[in-house]
UniProtKB/TrEMBL annotation:
This protein's UniProt keywords: NAD, Oxidoreductase, Signal
Matches recorded under InterPro entries: D-iso_2-hydroxyacid_DH_PdxB (IPR050418), D-isomer_DH_CS (IPR029753), D-isomer_DH_NAD-bd (IPR006140), NAD(P)-bd_dom_sf (IPR036291)
Coiled coil feature spans: none
Protein name: D-isomer specific 2-hydroxyacid dehydrogenase NAD-binding domain-containing protein
A GO MF label: oxidoreductase activity
PANTHER family referenced in this protein's UniProt entry, alphabetically: D-ISOMER SPECIFIC 2-HYDROXYACID DEHYDROGENASE CATALYTIC DOMAIN-CONTAINING PROTEIN-RELATED, D-ISOMER SPECIFIC 2-HYDROXYACID DEHYDROGENASE FAMILY PROTEIN (AFU_ORTHOLOGUE AFUA_1G13630)
Lineage: Eukaryota, Fungi, Dikarya, Ascomycota, Pezizomycotina
Domain D-isomer specific 2-hydroxyacid dehydrogenase NAD-binding per the UniProt entry, residue ranges: 57-193
Pfam families: 2-Hacid_dh_C
Family label: Belongs to the D-isomer specific 2-hydroxyacid dehydrogenase family.
Gene3D superfamilies, sorted: NAD(P)-binding Rossmann-like Domain
Length: 224
């Protein structure tokens, strides 16, 4: 969750804050023409979550609402609008209306390549994509192309198709050279979004509980 909030704040307040984000060192905000500045704050943004409840989706959603954002919970891709669950928003509507799309769902055959050029091209030009779920959910080459061509405004990811990601990874390469590096429109971290003190403590506790349950002939935290 820590990375999710960091990515959102850094992208919203820096990437979209043109031309304020392009201030030179020691240059004050007063040097920017107020009529052309377009600083974007949290309030008024439309935040959408895929698979809320997984990977802290609900907790981040609560914080976003507290900041005055409109929160949408995304229905599964391919579900007709007439069959959308209560309190969920159809997948096409989420793509067309979101200023920030949080991907917080597991990688399965149904979610592999969930976001490709086809989805990115119908998103808003000021939209941000934040992936703290799994590599392979977003097509990495399509994402880089969309960023370079200005199809969307920015992206942040904590996960990669192949991990650990090296310099041959298309996202790492794009973030190292060229306009995406200079503008900060692509934020990367090496799959450490979960690595908070409470998460580590929970991991240790669950491991102990699983071993104890196995020794007693029972089941602990069963995944899958």
């Amino acid at each position: 969750m820590q990375f999710t909030l960091f990515a959102m704040i850094s992208l919203i307040t820096i990437v979209i804050a043109t031309p304020i984000s392009l201030l030179k060192p020691r240059q004050s905000a007063a040097a920017v023409d107020a009529s052309t500045a377009s600083m974007t704050d949290a309030q008024g943004n439309v935040i959408s979550f895929s698979s809320p409840g997984v990977f802290q989706g609900n907790r981040v959603a609560k914080l976003c609402r507290a900041l005055g954002m409109t929160v949408q919970m995304c229905e599964r891709k391919g579900v007709p609008s007439t069959e959308t669950r209560p309190n969920y928003t159809p997948f096409p509507t989420v793509l067309a209306t979101s200023t920030v799309l949080f991907l917080t769902l597991p990688l399965t055959p149904a979610t592999a390549n969930l976001i490709t050029s086809s989805e990115l091209c119908v998103m808003r030009k000021d939209a941000l994509v934040v992936n703290v779920a799994r590599g392979g959910i977003v097509n990495e080459e399509d994402l880089v192309r969309a960023l370079r061509e200005g199809v969307i405004a920015g992206a942040a990811t904590d996960v990669f198709m192949t991990e650990p990601a090296g310099r041959d990874n298309v996202l790492v390469d794009a973030a190292r050279v060229g306009t995406l590096r200079d503008t900060g429109r692509l934020v990367l971290s090496p799959h450490v979004a979960w690595y908070g003190r409470s998460s580590v403590e929970k991991l240790r506790r669950v491991v102990v509980e699983n071993v104890k349950a196995w020794c007693e002939g029972g089941e602990g935290n069963v995944v899958g």
